[in-house]
């Protein structure tokens, strides 16, 4: 690992088995896809994409705070979801989390995610200038 890349995870987000939740390289941070697990690792919102998205954004908020960032520092959002019918509920949670901040966003409908419980997964890219 390069000393210019920092890999880290906050203590209040359930740890991933094989990777850290965020990689900081230069002035940017790349947040791994977040799913609806609470800090104890329990699934949140089984069958409810809106409730899952709310938990996903709680996790992202915790990760951002861990690296000294806020939702307004996010420069790109990638949302992966499994059912077109869930799009409005997922979008509503994104808008609640970001408020008036509207960075570029990609919504990608796919056949399935890492576990059958997962209806939505979100990645973000964050601008984190060294002086911040």
Can you describe what's shown?
The protein is an alpha+beta fold. The chain has a single domain (about 5-125), classed as 60s Ribosomal Protein L30, Chain: A (2-Layer Sandwich), CATH 3.30.1330.40. It is about 25% helix and about 25% strand. The chain is built from two helices and six strands, in the order βββαβαββ. It has helices at about 50-65, 85-100, and strands at about 5-10, 20-25, 30-35, 75-80, 105-110, 120-125. α2 links the parallel β4 (about 75-80) and β5. α1 (about 50-65) packs parallel to α2 (about 85-100). The radius of gyration is 14 Å and the shape is globular. The two termini are about 25 Å apart. The model has no long low-confidence stretch (mean pLDDT about 95).
Secondary-structure topology with pairs:
Layout: E1 5-8, E2 22-25, E3 28-34, H1 49-66, E4 74-81, H2 87-98, E5 105-109, E6 120-127
Parallel strand pairs: 4-5
Antiparallel strand pairs: 1-2, 2-3, 3-6, 4-6
Helix pairs in contact: 1-2
Number of domains: 1
Bin the strand percentage: 25-35%
- CATH class assignment: Alpha Beta
Low-confidence stretches: none
How many whole angstroms does the radius of gyration measure?
14 Å
CATH architecture: 2-Layer Sandwich
CATH superfamily: RutC-like
- Structural class by helix and strand composition: alpha+beta
Number of helical segments? Answer: 2
Query: How helical, in percent, are the residues?
Result: 10-25%
């Amino acid at each position: 690992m390069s000393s210019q890349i920092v890999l880290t995870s906050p203590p209040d987000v359930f740890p991933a088995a094989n990777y850290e939740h965020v990689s900081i390289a230069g002035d940017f941070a790349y947040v791994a896809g977040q799913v609806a697990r609470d800090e104890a690792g329990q699934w949140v919102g089984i069958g409810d994409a809106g409730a899952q998205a709310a938990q996903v954004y709680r996790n992202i908020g915790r990760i951002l705070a861990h690296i000294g960032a806020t939702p307004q520092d996010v420069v790109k959002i990638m949302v992966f979801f499994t059912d077109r019918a869930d799009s409005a509920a997922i979008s509503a949670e994104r808008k609640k989390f970001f408020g008036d901040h509207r960075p570029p966003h990609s919504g990608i409908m796919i056949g399935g995610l890492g576990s059958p419980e997962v209806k939505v997964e979100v990645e973000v890219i964050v601008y984190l200038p060294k002086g911040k």
